[in-house]
Design goal:
Helices cover 71% and strands 0% of the residues. By secondary structure, it is mainly alpha-helical.
């Protein structure tokens, strides 16, 4: 499975779980997307011929920075 398939199946099963469990705010998460993301980053690092661990570290720090920025400006309000 690729990242798109995992995200699609997770969203479908999460929606079914929310409808039938009566708990729509329950977060149903899997470790599969994290594993697939890590494999994708590893393949990118191999393709660019660079060390995996520093590349993965900078990828995660970049993502953390964006999470902090989006949370601090309350970016969820832009969805409405």
């Amino acid at each position: 499975l690729g990242p798109v398939e995992v995200l699609l199946s997770t969203s479908i099963t999460g929606t079914i779980f929310a409808i039938f469990s009566g708990q729509p705010l329950c977060i149903v998460g899997v470790t599969g997307p994290v594993t697939i993301f890590t494999i994708s980053v590893f393949n990118l690092a191999e393709g660019f011929n660079i060390d995996f661990l520093p590349f993965y570290c900078w990828t995660q720090l970049w993502a953390a920075l964006f999470h902090i920025i989006l949370a601090s400006i309350n970016a969820c309000e832009l969805i409405r």
